[in-house]
Amino acid sequence: SKTAESQFREIQRWLNVVDPATNFSSALAVREPGTGNWLLEGRDYMDWKEGSGGVLWLHGIPRCGKSVLSATAIEDVKRLCSMSDDHALAYFYFTFSDSQKQNLANMLLSLIGQLLRARSDPVLPDEIMKLYHNSKAIGTSSSIKDLQTVFSHITKLSKKTFIILDALDEFPKDTRGSVLSWIGALMTDHDAGSLSMLVTSRPEADIVKSLEPLTNFSISLQSKIIDPDIRVYIQNSLDSKDGFKEFTNEIRSEIEDTLVTHSQGMYANTRSDMFRFRWVDCLLRILQECMTPKAVRGALKELPKDLDSVYSRILESIHKPQREYIQCAMHWLSFSAVPLTLAELAEAV
């Protein structure tokens, strides 16, 4: 009936208090095609997804690509769930930049809403109806305990439920114990294989202490493990950029192997894979200008050791008449009170 449909939409709006899909889309937008396959094809991930389930914990320092990997996993599990009516997925992104996404109640409401939308049965479970009407009647938010109880019930309506939580370390530290306790209770409350939870975070002490005893699979995102993604990024660039089209396979292999190896040193200096990718990207721009194999090999022997050196070399390569405009543009970008569009920047310089 129209009344039932209207109520269903109203309850969905109540549950969808925050939308993690925006974070998911943002993470996918910066992912290089073909990267992350080492995770999806790894034994731990495959067993987590299709076998024993439990907790898979991806941990690493800031800017090592955790959010992009969680988005890769979400996309992969979505495909699996689309082929299996008895499988369901819900995910959530904690973030420093949005207080609404540092809230346990909001997380639970969002996860419940996602799992309900995944169901083929349009009838809302009685537990949801009761929770909604009680909340509406007293005019306040539902208690955390009630939300946890309903969430646990909803997860058991599917043969297999996947929960993916990104950036747990961005949940406020003084109340993070509530999330960690909930994860422990949830895993205890489910049969082996019926619930698979993927968590990404920095390896902070309280998280390590709580997750290590629960974790079936643990992956530390160190430099070597990201090497396949660096290699894919270089291969994609060599295939797609015009400046590399005339390079022989021998030269392309030399570029690939040299940049992968030297970028490990970049990681050692910065402890950041984001800077590793940036360093490789800048070096590819420099190599693209080389006209002969001899010039390429010469450039590969004199690779800058850090990003500052790379940027200096790029700036030195700019023709003198253009330097004044580049300097002016950089001043505008650095000191503008608000972000400038390309058109505004062009007018300013």
Topology:
Blueprint: H1 2-15, H2 21-29, H3 37-40, H4 43-50, E1 54-59, H5 66-82, E2 87-93, H6 104-118, H7 126-138, H8 144-155, E3 160-166, H9 176-188, E4 195-201, H10 205-211, E5 215-220, H11 223-240, H12 249-270, H13 273-287, H14 293-301, H15 307-316, H16 320-335, H17 342-348
Description:
The mean pLDDT is 84. The protein has a 5-stranded parallel sheet with strand order 2-3-4-1-5. It is built from 17 helices and 5 strands. Helix 9 (176-188) links the parallel strand 3 and strand 4. The N and C termini lie far apart (61 Å). It folds into 3 domains: 2-220, 3-Layer(aba) Sandwich (Rossmann fold); 226-317, no CATH class; 320-348. It is elongated, with a radius of gyration of 24 Å. The protein is α/β, with parallel strands linked by helices and 349 residues long. Residues 34-202 form the Nephrocystin 3-like N-terminal domain. Pfam families: NPHP3_N. InterPro entries: NPHP3-like_N (IPR056884), P-loop_NTPase (IPR027417). Keywords: Repeat.
Average pLDDT score: 84
Order the strands across the largest sheet as they lie in space. Answer: 2-3-4-1-5
Helix % is: 55-70%
Given helix and strand content, the structural type is alpha/beta
Unreliable sequence segments: none
Rg calculated over all Cα atoms: 24 Å
Give the helix tally.
Answer: 17
Query: What count of structural domains?
Result: 3
Which architecture of the largest domain per CATH?
A: 3-Layer(aba) Sandwich
For CATH, the homologous superfamily of the largest domain is named as P-loop containing nucleotide triphosphate hydrolases
The outline comes out as elongated
The counted number of beta strands is: 5
**N→C terminal distance:** 61 Å
CATH class descriptor of the largest domain:
Alpha Beta
CATH topology of the largest domain: Rossmann fold
What's the helix-strand series?
Answer: HHHHEHEHHHEHEHEHHHHHHH
Q: How much β-strand is present in the residues?
A: 5-15%
The main sheet comes to: 5 strands, parallel
Domain Nephrocystin 3-like N-terminal: 34-202
Keywords: Repeat
Pfam families: NPHP3_N (PF24883)
Protein name: Nephrocystin 3-like N-terminal domain-containing protein
